[in-house]
Write a structure and sequence with these properties.
Elements (H helix, E strand, L loop, with lengths): L1 H31 L1 E9 L9 E4 L6 E3 L5 E6 L4 E6 L6 E5 L8 E3 L3 H6 L17 E4 L1 H4 L8 H4 L6 E5 L7 E6 L12 E4 L2 E2 L12 E7 L2 H7 L7 E6 L29 H17 L20
Parallel strand pairs: 1-7, 11-14
Antiparallel strand pairs: 1-4, 2-3, 2-5, 5-6, 8-13, 9-10, 11-12, 13-14
């Protein structure tokens, strides 16, 4: 019994020593950390609110600037690198020595991000960043359809676009509505924009073989860009353009067979002669007696007109 008690006391002391040792190690590690503060401003000296300040080696150590552009970040005591980022500005990296506690940063506007932003009437935008109701018809649809006009690319490919087919021999569409009728009295036809220029002609005048892509603006963004002209929606057509690469020749051939859905039975030669004879016999019957040709006259095929 005494031996077991002695072992219990021995192992208890060892656990206590290990706990004290771990606590000392953590205390020393925490004591080596330091706080770095500063102010983040733009080129004009205005404070940047909400800029992100993070440790390059450990992105989990991060903070954001307040309404005055100030920040406070606790980092390890060794030499470190801070990364400052904000939307629309170039990222900034600053090396912080082991004894530095204050770092002020001036950020420059990013011209690359400004060019990278938005094609929706006034530029281009990545689909993941797009918030408006814009439908895109790309090469996958255009190259897989046989079209006589641009409307053929939109049929069944763009939700919210109602195309009424035309009964004319030339085909096409007699009416196009984007999200229904937008006005009681004004025109409900969408605005056509061809390569960035408003196109006042008919969309059927545009060669479908020259079309590279079609974008349809369906919400208020079309009005914001084009004013009242785009109140009924906007159809933006981009045509194919040459490149500086090596010449590429594409040959597309399409073969189809047309067959009548209903073919009436054609009469034989005897049936055709009998029909003509019966027709002229009926006319001859109602003529005055002096003008009648008489019975059996039209039974001879050579007497038929």
């Amino acid at each position: 019994m005494k031996q077991k008690f002695s072992e219990f006391v021995f192992y208890g002391r060892i656990r206590m020593l290990m706990l004290i040792l771990v606590s000392v190690i953590f205390a020393q590690a925490y004591a080596q950390d330091r706080s770095v503060s500063g102010v983040v401003t733009d080129a004009s000296g205005e404070a940047i609110i909400g800029a992100t300040v993070k440790l390059k080696d450990n992105p989990n150590i991060a903070t954001m600037t307040d309404v005055d552009g100030k920040y406070v970040l606790r980092i390890p005591g060794k030499n470190s690198t801070l990364v400052f980022t904000f939307i629309g500005y170039e990222p900034v990296e600053r090396t912080v020595g082991s004894s530095v506690t204050k770092v002020d940063v001036t950020m420059e506007e990013s011209s690359l991000m400004l060019d990278d932003v938005v094609v929706i009437g006034y530029g281009t935008m990545k689909r993941k960043d797009l918030t408006g109701a814009v439908a895109h018809v790309g090469e996958d649809v255009i190259n897989s359809r046989v079209a006589t006009n641009a409307y053929d690319f939109l049929v069944g490919a763009v939700p919210g676009v109602n195309i009424t087919p035309s009964t004319d021999a030339g085909g096409g569409a007699s009416g196009v509505l984007i999200r229904g009728e937008q006005s009681l009295k004004a025109s409900t036809s969408p605005l056509i924009v061809l390569d960035g220029v408003i196109f006042y002609g008919s969309i059927e005048d545009i060669n479908p073989n020259d079309i590279a892509s079609i974008d349809v603006l369906k919400d208020a963004s079309s009005t914001a860009v084009y004013g009242s002209k785009g109140s009924a929606g906007v159809i933006i057509i981009n045509t194919k353009r040459g490149t500086t690469d090596k010449p590429i020749i594409n040959l597309t051939a399409k073969v189809g067979f047309a067959e009548s859905t209903f073919m009436p039975e054609m009469p034989t030669a005897e049936q055709y002669l009998q029909r003509r004879a019966d027709y002229y016999k009926t006319i001859d019957y109602f003529k005055p007696g002096a003008q009648q040709m008489g019975l059996g006259y039209y039974d001879n095929p050579f007497n038929l007109p």
